[in-house]
């Protein structure tokens, strides 16, 4: 099976998911079908589930091209590109550590996030967490590359993404090596901000760099086992309000890896919820 067949099958599978992330987003279907995900995946990556030997298998495009390509287009699998901030190399082979610090997000979640972000042509967009550059390529296909700024904290990862983007002819995005929590004030204000790294607390810089009515989409840590995808609307004066639209799982931004008390982060305690159940179902709400 060639890459276009893999892409078509991946799209067909995502179409079966509840909500249909390509629904009413024809631009997203077109971009997903035309931008090679395989182009942005490193030749050697780790599969994120342990093998029978307790190790995370290494997938090598050179030695197992079919297996590698199949993994690239498995809709609900994120492929690991970095462990322990680069202390463990793919040259070391299968990995024991599960301290994943960078990946290419699974295709289904990439599509889901871009569906919720809903960027428009010409929008000034800030992406936090360049990673492989694949998400940036999809965004550039929609907004125009010159309207996109993407920030990556790891210089090696940023350079690899920049090279991959240029090789695909996407040469205009501004790729910045910096701490994404600081945003990028030089090109603010932004119409849309998307983070592919999870936070416990929304960084103030993100709020300050948004236009009134601008959209922020980010994974946020929750006390309920999963992260949640937060979709917020900014007021342009350092505040934003919104809702949680999906359960997800993402790696943390570096400075927010240490857990903080949930109450300190504005979450209610479990005793603050009440559950009502009856013949028509149940309802959980905050007291």
Fold blueprint:
Blueprint: H1 3-15, H2 26-34, H3 37-40, E1 44-46, E2 58-60, H4 65-72, E3 79-83, E4 100-104, H5 107-117, E5 125-128, H6 134-143, E6 148-152, H7 155-167, E7 174-177, E8 190-195, H8 204-208, E9 210-220, E10 227-234, E11 240-248, E12 273-278, E13 281-286
User: What order do the strands of the largest sheet run in, or round the barrel if closed?
Assistant: 7-6-5-8-9-10-11
The CATH superfamily of the largest domain appears as Vaccinia Virus protein VP39
Q: Into how many domains do the coordinates divide?
A: 2
Encode the helix/strand succession as letters.
HHHEEHEEHEHEHEEHEEEEE
Structural class designation: alpha/beta
Commentary on this structure:
The protein has 287 residues and is of the alpha/beta class. The protein has two domains: 3-104, no CATH class; 108-259, Rossmann fold (3-Layer(aba) Sandwich). The chain is 25% helix and 26% strand. The chain contains eight helices and 13 strands. It has helices spanning 3-15, 26-34, 37-40, 65-72, 107-117, 134-143, 155-167, 204-208; strands at residues 44-46, 58-60, 79-83, 100-104, 125-128, 148-152, 174-177, 190-195, 210-220, 227-234, 240-248, 273-278, 281-286. Strands 7-6-5-8-9-10-11 form a seven-stranded mixed beta sheet. Strands 1-2 form a two-stranded antiparallel sheet. It has a two-stranded antiparallel sheet with strand order 3-4. Helix 8 links the parallel strand 8 (190-195) and strand 9. The longest helix is centred in the N-terminal third of the chain and has 13 residues, at 3-15. The chain starts with a helix and ends with a strand. The model has no long low-confidence stretch (mean pLDDT 95).
